[in-house]
Amino acid sequence: MHMFTVTLNKTGGMPLYEQLYQYIKEEITRGRFSPGEKLPSKRKLAAHLKISQNTIETAYAQLQAEGYIRSLPKQGFFVEEIAKNLPLRSSPKTSSLPSEYSLEKPYSKKWQYDFKTNIVNTENFPFDTWSKIVRSVLAEKREKLLHPLPFLGDLQLRGEIARYLYAYRDIQTTPEQIMVGAGSEYLLSLVIQFFGADCPFAIENPGYDKIQRIFQNHHLPIDYINTTQESLDIKRLSRSTAKVLHITPSHHFPLGCVMPIQIRRQALNWANEKDDRYIIEDDYDSEFRFAGKPIPALASLDQNEKVIYLNTFTKSLAPSLRISYLVLPRHLMEQFSDRFSGYASTVPGFEQATLAAFMARGHFERHINRMKRIYKEQRDMFIQTVNKHPLAKNIAIIGQETGLHLLLQVNLNLSEKELVTIARQKDIHITDLSSYYHEDSTDMPTNTIVLGYSGLSLDEIRQGINLLLDSWQQAIGK
Amino acid sequence: MHMFTVTLNKTGGMPLYEQLYQYIKEEITRGRFSPGEKLPSKRKLAAHLKISQNTIETAYAQLQAEGYIRSLPKQGFFVEEIAKNLPLRSSPKTSSLPSEYSLEKPYSKKWQYDFKTNIVNTENFPFDTWSKIVRSVLAEKREKLLHPLPFLGDLQLRGEIARYLYAYRDIQTTPEQIMVGAGSEYLLSLVIQFFGADCPFAIENPGYDKIQRIFQNHHLPIDYINTTQESLDIKRLSRSTAKVLHITPSHHFPLGCVMPIQIRRQALNWANEKDDRYIIEDDYDSEFRFAGKPIPALASLDQNEKVIYLNTFTKSLAPSLRISYLVLPRHLMEQFSDRFSGYASTVPGFEQATLAAFMARGHFERHINRMKRIYKEQRDMFIQTVNKHPLAKNIAIIGQETGLHLLLQVNLNLSEKELVTIARQKDIHITDLSSYYHEDSTDMPTNTIVLGYSGLSLDEIRQGINLLLDSWQQAIGK
Fold it and tell me: For labelling, which of A222, B74, B267, B325 has a CA lying 20 to 30 Å from the CA of A379?
């Protein structure tokens, strides 16, 4: 038996049992108490250290729970054999931790004029209405908000989404086919997992870089299908082994175009040719069409349960709300639900109930209409400013009817890289269209710039566009 | 030129332009207007139909936007060639849609006594305090809540989590290493994607079925490592090709045991042997330990940046809040952040700000302490009821020190299946331990039942356990 002496601080903050526990743990860890060695009995140690047996019992129990000592009936407590710590590896980690801001790249640089795409104008969000609904939902539903939700999401919210899709996107569906989730990235990830590791996917080239990354992160075979303002390379699609095609028919990103009915039909026909072919329709900012009525969703033409429809409230309400949804073909629901059964709904019940009430009371529709007016003013200011500029005749504006970005085709004998570099020198952020191409395509443009305007005020748009066009004008010496 | 006559309803609800658009679209779709055919000029059609040229212009513009017709400068509008609809496939979908409740299996059956695991008691959630913080966060932060969040989550919340981990789990970390996400399933999925498609993973056998399903859904090679109350088969682990090991050291699910220090050391040593080996520590209900102080996390022993720590507020607060977090080793942060850069934070900004304030004001700590008392009362009632029953001497209770479930080893010459079936006849839901085993193991028990008690009141626990034990007693004819 190994009696020992430890000086306990009887006036300090740490309980006596914890001091004793820490001391013995340290001794065992450092090998000063050997494996198999017997510890003093509680009675003897208590007498020796002049503390109560209870204190020792608590310390021994904790050591036993963590596996440092073992109790043998009628024999006492014994030190356990503890695996030695292996030495650190020969090349210890440098642990250079990038700073918060270098980790969060999208937030790293503040530009004077940031024409990046996919900024959502949140200044006009009906915050007071939303807050009022939050308070009333809290007061009415109370503890019910804490209960686990169905995997597919709050049933009332799914009902509101079904009504919205019928009224605005010509889609007939039921709440049972709708799944609510924490963002399109999450939902797309589930769809990818659903079709499996060996399923070849096809995506548009050019396309949204984030979509490419999601597919790449799942380590799947990807075919890139060339896309232009007017077409999608259906022949290449048919030659490829792809089974599932991801497209943005209502508003192509980045090309800004609407997919014509011919191509929609061809894409659906491609899917109809084989049982295991499907189309993922990403309808990300279809709400904001400035001329005429909304273009019906591809899903509304689908008579054969071939289209998986994906949309988000991130663009139409606010990025930080993080609510997206999927509409799944009826015949896939059971298999989909089986595969992910046991998964929890990823959107807090509280947010789902608030959004359901917001929609039911007509606020979502009002907000969309209001934002359409505001975004249209921004777009009009953008177009007017370009058209009034001396360079106007050298610049074609593309994709102005829908969504929150457009393209400038700039005929000034400047390359895309030059156009971007000149802008950067004036602290203006714009993006060259080529950078959205995954692989070279004969259709690839050489002088086209992608600009979003939704994050800027009317004055900023006017000043920013004038500064941009002036800087190009200077560069060509006119 | 193809002049046509259409009867427009000038008093009805649908705008004239939309009636005209629908009519022409239908004619083109059905092939009654042929590809290449010229449409009447706006002027002529307006005179013919006695409506304004504006109406016709709007209808033509919409048809053009959707690709049904094409405008040729100075020539007019022409019908486009539209791909024919392929016939429906020979075997049209039956479209039998499962009902809401059959899709949502966990919610399908209401038991009289449901001893399922992983129910969270939400009755004692401090709802009024939470509501008060929600209201004050809304009032103070307002529109700021709508802004996009850093990918890793709200910085203040990550600071609170770092403080909590230091105080309660002995883990020293920084907010820069913490990522907040919409549930452990989502975060684990990111970790799996991070290590890649060819990375072999090892998980515990038996284990939590949901964890197995997440790995299976990513279509990855998985090794199942046998686990018992006292050990993890490190030899098998070393023989396997596994690079990343997922374990639940603080409270094994379903075995209910704490991983002893020897095995923790061995697991860390296994990881330290090679540069690309890591351990995912799932610390899912470590908050609820009823005897002594909390067992320090495995991550607190890690001196070599080998442990990826995962925990959730789902168990400690409420399932519908859906907030979990990861602590990543410093040297992985840059690569991790690169891979998922551009992804958005999956938890609404509003929930993150509320939880941060809830923690900062000490409510989380108070709530945990309160729930520990309540769960302990439930557990004590469970144990007392078993011990008072005539069958007590035939039943061993396992795993009672930690967490919200425990095991009964039932020595009555009844198989696990029989034990479960007898319970089912009395409308009592219990689970046999064998069902958590992925593959047979020589360590597999033959007579052990897993029971959660957190969803039941004290009375229900007493009545349910007595009914359960009575029914077994009857079955063996005692």
Answer: B74
